[in-house]
Amino acid sequence: MAALLVQYKATLRRIRPQKVFLATDMEESDPVLMALRKESPTSIQRLNAAMLGEASDILPVEALKGGEMAILEQIICVRADSFIGTYQSTFTQETTQNKEATSANPDSNPAMSGDF
C-alpha cells in the first residue's frame, strides 16, 4: 500500500486536479480508500445524485446495480481531463482505450506501474 500512496501523491502533484473522482468497488471502511482520502490534497468524490443531475430523479444512484454503476463511472472517467488507473485492471484498460479514441490529448492518461 505504501507504493500505491507514493505514486498516487506524485501523480496528483503533477496533474494538480481540482476534483478527484474515484471509481471503485471498495467499501468506505477499506483501509486503502481511507488512506487515499487522508493523503489527497482535494476531496475524493464517488458517483452521486448531483453528478447525474435530473437523471437521478428517474434512476436514483442507490438503485444502480454493479454493472450499471461501472458503466456510468467509466463514462465519467473517459470524459475527465486526466485518468489514473491500476495497471492490471480491465476497467482501466477499457477506460484508457476509450479516452485515447475520443481525446485530443492522449497524454491525459498517466501510466501506472503494476504496484498501483
Keywords:
two-stranded parallel ribbon, 116 residues, 50% helix, Rossmann fold, 3% strand
How would you portray this structure in words?
With 116 residues, the chain is mainly α. It has one domain (2-108): Rossmann fold, CATH 3.40.50.11350. It has helices at residues 2-15, 31-39, 49-52, 55-58, 66-79, 90-102; strands at residues 20-21, 44-45. The protein has a two-stranded parallel sheet. Strand 1 (20-21), helix 2 (31-39) and strand 2 (44-45) form a beta-alpha-beta unit.
Number of strands: 2
* Mean of all residue-level pLDDT scores: 76
The biggest sheet, with number of strands, parallel, antiparallel or mixed sense and barrel status, is:
2 strands, parallel
CATH architecture type: 3-Layer(aba) Sandwich
Give the helices and strands as they follow along the chain.
HEHEHHHH
> Number of DSSP helices?
6
Structural class: mainly alpha
Number of domains: 1
- Measured as a percent range, the helix fraction is 40-55%
Radius of gyration: 14 Å
Strand content: under 5%
Low-pLDDT ranges: none
Strand neighbour order, sheet with most strands: 1-2
CATH first level: Alpha Beta
Query: Which overall shape is indicated by the principal axes computed on the Cα atoms?
Result: globular
Distance between termini?
8 Å
Write a brief structural summary:
By secondary structure, this protein is mainly alpha-helical.
What is this structure's SSE topology?
Layout: H1 2-15, E1 20-21, H2 31-39, E2 44-45, H3 49-52, H4 55-58, H5 66-79, H6 90-102
Helix pairs in contact: 5-6
